[in-house]
């Protein structure tokens, strides 16, 4: 009975390994996903910055157009009042102020135009990287899906075999095993190797070894880790 339980433990260990393998992402896929996330994050940042830059450009261009219209009107009005020296002086001051503001806005727009061009080129380059990565990432994802599918099929096959074997165990023994296994990181049964518990390496008293060697129920537990002992 205990030998059968030990076999169940071995099968459970194998099932745990298959589950771990399923969640373990292959290195090339992990790297491709990391690169994809990096590109996506950079694209989002560039597009956000480009939107803000375009908005600022639009605001400045509208203000520039408004001041240019005012400047044109002021010059026209100055021409219409060319006979009045006092009015001429007033218009000259106004034209100077408007001209200065137009110059300021034109200067402010230059770095914004350069920034917009830089961002647009950056976005184009990132989109090119994303397009180049896409087929490789898709292929790696498909390969991983196949890998996971194969692991799950293997898991189900071995799980059925394990359950069939476990059904032959004494019900009380099986329940005790599951409780210990859950509490002891997946290992409910330990073999006796060279007089020691193979799980915790405790040297077992001779009496414990002798009782475990009989294979009789109830099963003997390791005095240290509490796992069920079996001599194999």
From TrEMBL:
Residues 196-229 form the C4-type zinc ribbon domain. Keywords: Coiled coil. Residues 29-168 form a coiled coil. Residues 8-183 form the CT398-like coiled coil hairpin domain. It comes from the Bacteria. This is C4-type zinc ribbon domain-containing protein. InterPro entries: CT398_CC_hairpin (IPR056003), Oxidative_Scav/Glycosyltrans (IPR052376), Zf-RING_7 (IPR003743).
